[in-house]
Amino acid sequence: MPKITVNVDGVAYTDEVEPRLLLVHYLRERAGKTGTPVGCDTTNCGACTVQLNGVSVKSCAMLAIQADGAEITTIEGLGNGGWHPLQRAFNEEHALQCGYCTPGMIMAAADLLRTNPHPTNDEIRQGLEGNLCRCTGYQNIVRAVRRASEAGAAT
Amino acid sequence: MTAEAPAPQAELGRARTRKEDARLVTGQTNWTDNIVLPGMLHMAFARSPYAHARITSVDTSAARAMPGVIAVFSGADFPDQGSLPCAWPVTPDIVIPGHPPMATEEVRYVGEAVAVVVARDRYSAADAVSAVEVEYDPLPPVLDMRAALAEGSPKVHPAGNKSFTWEFSGGDVDAAFASAPVVIDRTFRQQRLIPSAMEPRAVVAAGAGDEYTVWSATQIPHILRLMLAMVTGTPEQSIRVIAPDVGGGFGSKLQVTAEEVISLLVTKKLGRPVKWTESRSEGNLTVHHGRDQWQHLRLAADRDGRVHALDVDLLADMGAYLMLVTPGVPLLGAFMFPGIYKLEAYRFACTGVFTTKMPTDAYRGAGRPEATFGIERMMDDLAAELGMDPLAVRERNWIRHEEFPFTTIAGLTYDSGNYEAATARARELFGYDTLRAEQQRRRESSDPVQVGIGVSTFTEMCGLAPSRVLGSLSYGAGGWESASVRMLPTGKVEVVTGSSAHGQGHETAWSQIAADKLGVPFEDVRVLHGDTQISPKGMDTYGSRSLTVGGIALNAACDKVVTKAKRIAAHMLEASENDIEFSAGRLQVRGDPEKGQTIQEIALATFAAHDLPDGMEPSLDSEATYDPDNFSFPHGTHLCAAEVDTETGRVTIRSYVAVDDVGKVVNPLIVDGQVHGGLAQGIAQALYEEAVYDDDGNLLTTTLADYLVPSAVDLPEFTTDRTETPATTNPLGVKGVGEAGTIASTPAVVNAVLDALRPLGVTDVPMPCSPENVWRAIHNAGGQGNGGAQ
C-alpha cells in the first residue's frame, strides 16, 4: 500500500493507505479528525470541506494519496487553540442549528474571505453556493460571514 | 452566609447565544458515525433494484468469501426479525401489511433491504454487497395513486392497494354547496419530498446478554427503545438507546427503521459491536419521504366573499408500507384545512393508498403544510374569482381577536390569536400597496417580468399532544413530556428532559427556563437529554412539542423545587412557610430582607440534611410529567412578492415578509432561526424540490445533484417580525415555532406565482414551480409570455 505523509492541524502523520481511500475517511478514521463530517457522496453538500495548502477542498472528492505532502487544516485546527473569528461569528449570529454543515460552511467561508476579505451579501451567498444547510435558511450564515469579515477574519 | 444572589437579567425573552455551539463550531461533536468501539464491525445492505418483485433466491456465499467479510445475513437468517411498527392504526379496518426489516418473499420499493453484509471495515462491506446474488421475478410496479385504486390494478399487497379511508364532517355540507352562489373546485398536487437532514442516518449497536446499547441518529430515543424491545423481543430494560449529537431530523428521524432493528439483531447474533452509516444516495432511497397527496377541494361561498363550507377529499400515498405514523400524517391535516376561518360546514375524507415507492411519513409540518396549502390556495382563488383583494377575503372570514376562544368546525378550540395584528404588521413591512401599484404597472406595460403577491394567513396545531386526543385518534401512545431538576450540593443544576434535541437548542432554552424559575445563573445549568439511561422517560421531539410540552414539564419541575425549598427555608429561618418569599434565587422572610437564604444555600443544606423539617426526604430534586389539555395554535401572516419571467418561467422571490405569533418567546435568536429554516423548507417545496420516480419505479432523485435542496443563492433575505398573543393554555404562554415557517411559506410562494400569471390565463402551476413547470403552465394557458417572441 502506498505511504503518505500529511500534516493535519499542525501534526505530521505518516500512514499506509489504500489507494481508493477518500481523504475525508482518512481524516476521520485514521487521523481521528471526526470534526469533519460527511453529508453526501456526490460533492454537493460541502459538509466535509477542509483547507488543503490553504485552499478549501471537499475532502470527499479527493483521495488520501492525492494529499501526500499537503498541509491540511480542519475545523479542529482553524482556531489554532482558540476560536477563529468565523467560529465566534457563527455563534454570535446563530448561524447554525444542528451544526452538521457548520465545519464545512466555516472552512468554505474562510476561503471566501481569503480571496474576498469584504464580500457583499450576494458575494457571500455566491461564495457558499457549494455548501448546503438544511436548518438555517442561510440568513444568519450570511450575517455571520459578514460579521467575521468586519472583524478582519481574513487577516 | 447571607450574601445577596446577583440579580439576574430576565432570562425569558433574552437572545442568549447557544451553549451547544461551543462543540459544534469547533468540531468537538459526537455524531453517531464518530463512534468507534473495540472489535466494531461495519454493515452494508444489499437492496432491491426493483420497485416490485418476488425474491426467488438469495445466495450470500460469494459475498461471505470476500476479504474482510465476517458474515452475510438475509431475512431468512432472522426468522424472528419481526415487523417494523406502525403506531397509528387510524381506522378499525385499516390494512397494515407486515413489514419485515429485511424482505424475504417480495420487495415493494427500490432500495428495500434484502441482505446485510458485516465486515471489518466500511469499504470491505460495500465491496461485498455487490457479491450478494439475489434473483428476482419482477412484478408490475404500482406508481400512481389513482390507477392503484382502479379496478384491475396490480396489487402492492394481497389485501389490495387501499389502506384506509378516514372521514370527518361537521355541519350540513351538501346544503351549503347546494345554495352557494360561488363554488370553487380545484385539484392540487402535493408532490413527494425527501426530508434531507444534513446528517445521514447512522446506527451503532453493542452489548451482550441483558445489556444492549444502540446509538442512533434519531429524534426519538425513547420511542425507539420501546419499539426495539417490541419488534425484537429484547426485554425493554435490557436496551439503552442514545441519541448523540443529531444532525437535523425534520421528521425523517422520527422513525423506527429497518437498519436500527437489523443492527441490534446482528450485534446479538455476532456478539460484536456493529456500525451502519448510510450514504446520501442510499438515504434518498430509504429515508421515509414526505407529503405526496392529491387534494380535491371544493369551497362554497357568497359573492361578497363569505365562505360557508369546505369539502376535502384526499388521496395520500403511503408508499409500500405503513411506518411509524404514516397513516396519521395526512389526518393531522383534517384539523387544519379550516385554517383561521369560520366555516359552517366541513367534510374531510382521506384514503391512504399503497404504491411501490418508499413509504411516506412525518416531514416538517406533517399534514398541516398540506392542509394550509389547500385552504390558502382556495382563498386566493376565491379572491380572484370575485375580483376581491385576497387579504380582504381572508378578513371577511377569519376569527376576530375578540372571538377567542373559538371552536372550529373541525372541533379544535383555538385558545387565542390576533390575525388582525399580525396581518397589519406584515402589510406594513411588506409595502403591500406599493407592490400592488408596481404589479399594475407591469401588467399594463405587458412587462415580460410580472410581479405577483402571495398571501398566506395560517395557523397550525402545535404541542403534540393531549394524550386523550391522541387516544381518540387511535394513536398508540400518549403526548406527555417529562422533566426533572437535580439541585446539586454546589448549587449547580442539572436539568433532565425527555425531549430530544437535534438542532433546536434545548440546552440553551431549557437553561434559560431553569435559570429564570430557580433564580440561578444561566451558566450554572446543564441540560441532559437523548439517553434513555440518563433521561429514562420521554416522548421525544417532533410536532413543535418541545417547548410547549417539554418546556412546561420543566417549568412544573422547577415549581416543585421552589415549593420544597420554601419549606426548608421556613424551617431554617424559623419562619412560617407562608411568610417565605422567593425572588431571583433568594428565599427570604416577608418584611425582613436581612433574613434569607439563597436557593444554592438551601441545596447545600438539603444535601447535608443536618437540619431538615421532621420527616422530610433529604432531596431538593423534582420530577414532573406534563400532559397538555389542548394544542397550541401559533399563527401568522406571510406575504411573498415573486417576479416571474414569463419568457423563461423563472421565479425569483423579491421579498418575503413573515410575521409570526408564537406567543411568548423564550429566546428570540432561536425563534428567528427556526422561522428562517422553516421558510427555506417551505419555499423549497414551492420552487425546487420533488422526489421523482420513473415509470419503472426507480427513484431518479437519489443525489443532491438531482434533488434540489436550495443553496444560499436560491433563497432570498427574509424579513421576519412577531406579534405576541400569549397562549392561555400553558403557564409560559408559549406556542411552538418549529414548523410555522414551512407550513406558511409554500402557499405564500405559489400564490405569488399564480397572482403574477392569472392575467395570462394560468390557474395552476404544479409544484415545484420550476422554470419548466411555470413555462408549460403559461403555454398551456395559451399565453406566450408577455412581450416575448410569439
What is this entry, summarized?
With 155 residues, chain A is α+β, with helices and mostly antiparallel strands. Chain A is built from six helices and five strands; from the N terminus they run ββαβββααααα. Chains A and B meet through α1, α3, α4, α5 and α6 of A and α1 and α18 of B.
Describe this structure in words.
The complex is a heterodimer of chains A (155) and B (790). Chain A is an alpha+beta fold. Chain A has 2 domains: 3-78, Ubiquitin-like (UB roll); 85-150, DNA polymerase, domain 1, CATH 1.10.150.120. Chain A contains 6 helices and 5 strands. Chain A has helices spanning 23-30, 75-78, 85-92, 102-115, 121-127, 139-150, and strands spanning 3-8, 11-16, 49-52, 55-58, 71-73. In chain A, strands 2-1-5-3-4 form a 5-stranded mixed beta sheet, sandwiched between helices. Chain A is globular. The mean pLDDT of chain A is 97. In chain B, helix 16 (546-572) crosses helix 17. In chain B, strand 16 (406-407) and strand 17 (413-414) form a beta hairpin. Chain B starts with 20 loop residues before the first helix and ends in a 10-residue tail after the last helix. Chain B is globular. The chains are: A alpha+beta (155), B alpha+beta (790). At the A-B interface, helix 1, helix 3, helix 4, helix 5 and helix 6 of A face helix 1 and helix 18 of B.
